[in-house]
Amino acid sequence: MVFFKEMESSSASYISYLRQIAAASVSAASCDVGGGGGGSSDDECRNEGAAFRLKMVAIMAILVSGAAGVVIPLVGQKRRGGGGGASSGGTFVLAKAFAAGVILATGFVHMLHGAEHALSNPCLPATPWRRFPFTGFIAMLAALGTLVVDFVSTHFYERKHSEEAAVAAAIAPEEAPLLEDGALWGTMSTRVEDGEGRDGGRERQDAMHIVGMHAHAAAHRHSHAHGHSACDGGSVHAADAHGHGHEEGPSARHVIVSQILELGIVSHSVIIGLSLGVSESPCTIKPLVAALSFHQFFEGFALGGCISEAQLKNFSAFMMAFFFAITTPAGISVGTAIASFYNPNSPRALVVEGILDSMSAGILIYMALVDLIAADFLSRKMSCNPRLQVGSYIALFLGPWAWQPWLYGLSE
């Protein structure tokens, strides 16, 4: 009996300890522990009137730059006839590589750093926030979760399209020759699933489904095994149709990539907008206007490129572009409205900010490396054009450099 009483007592004390930690972590009280929020520098430059005017300028500038970035690839697709040609120009590939570098730097340099700063803040209890690397752990879980969603969603959409294509082929048998020529992706997927694909179609299909750089590399090597002379003979389009069917026209893969990329961008755009909106310091807001305008333009360009490759219906493409363009301005507006009672230095705000920043970092890093960089840099178009390779690598490395905070007068 004594043993059970001791166990009950220790359990009660442990539960009480956990409650204290939870209460301290979600407290809304202000915390100004040294280095906790950087409040002293903000107080020295505090000017609510000037800050409000700068916020209005920021809303307009970020809205215009984000909308311009996401619209340019969509307009390019329409001008090229809407046949997926938006991604065929060398200039577009270079700009997309630069944008991928910006997104990668956003995840690694900006979001992870901000999350680490928030979750290791002295305002939070040392246990568990400074005893365990929550930032990297949450980012890893977010990246793996994105992988699972990417994989499952791609299979679901392509299976659905395959069934629709099979029904269409059964209803209109006279169109079967056209479908077998590959005009309809769903029928191609059906034939591959049934084992009727020619020249190793199953291997290419499997490689395309497995999300990751090794899968892209496998599909790339496989296509070379069947058409390695395409770069010399000028029949790049024919070889692409043989080795990389997913690069010719829309597929469920492109739809999933565009949607997940928007999810990652939107989630961190909300945090950025709120952070700017609650600030009452013109010294903090002014450099952020230029930095975020640049940032939104190239993130929008990358997202617009993915949407154009997915070849969504006009309304769906418009809604995705519209939702992206207004997210950060909406966050700034909400932050401005709650600035009078929202305390960014409270433990609750720090925990929420740190977790969301970590999740956004994981999503953006995965999308940048797997679905933007690997998908383009391991494609036949890139391998057949050494100039494009060199230019794309330069643009890719310039992207992270151009998003360094010190270029805009920011401390981090």
Shape: globular
How many discrete domains? Answer: 2
Mean pLDDT: 75
* Radius of gyration over all CA atoms, rounded: 25 Å
Helix content: over 70%
Assign the structural class, choosing from mainly alpha, mainly beta, alpha/beta, alpha+beta, or little secondary structure.
Answer: mainly alpha
Q: How far apart are the first and last residues' alpha carbons, in Å?
A: 58 Å
What is the helix/strand order?
HHHHHHHHHHHHHHHHHH
Q: How many distinct beta strands?
A: 0
Number of distinct helices:
18
Low-confidence runs (pLDDT<50, min 5 residues)? Answer: 34-41, 178-229, 233-249
- How much strand content do the residues show? under 5%
Instruction: Describe the main β-sheet briefly.
Output: none
Report what the structure shows.
With 412 residues, this protein is an all-alpha fold. It folds into two domains: 251 residues, no CATH class; 91 residues, no CATH class. 78% of the residues lie in helices and 0% in strands. The protein has 18 helices and no strands. Helix 3 runs parallel beside helix 14 and helix 10 packs across helix 12. About 19% of the residues have low confidence. It holds the Pfam family Zip. Keywords: Cell membrane, Ion transport, Membrane, Transmembrane, Transmembrane helix, Transport. Its main location: membrane. Belongs to the ZIP transporter (TC 2.A.5) family.
